[in-house]
Amino acid sequence: MLKNYVGGIERAERNPSLRHIAKIADALGVTIPDLFELLKSETAQLAGLSRDQGR
User: Fold this and answer.
1) Which domain holds residue 43?
2) pLDDT for 35
3) How many domains does the chain have?
4) Looking at residue 13, what DSSP letter applies?
5) What is the pTM of this model?
6) How far apart are alpha carbons 50 and 11 in whole angstroms?
7) Which of 13, 15, 27, 53 makes a 20 to 30 Å CA pair with 6?
8) Are 45 and 55 in contact (CB under 8 A)?
9) Residue 30 near residue 41 (C-beta atoms within 8 A)
């Protein structure tokens, strides 16, 4: 997988296929469900931070 492609995923410019999601999870040493749980946690933390900054 090209680093430009991964960067596009990180910037939400690209939608990865399930095959690419599996490769990313494998490279990180986690399962696909664990990868999504990590993303869910990160998103919740970022949402909380942005709410706190608005106060």
Assistant:
1) 3-53
2) 92
3) 1
4) S
5) 0.69
6) 18
7) 53
8) no
9) no
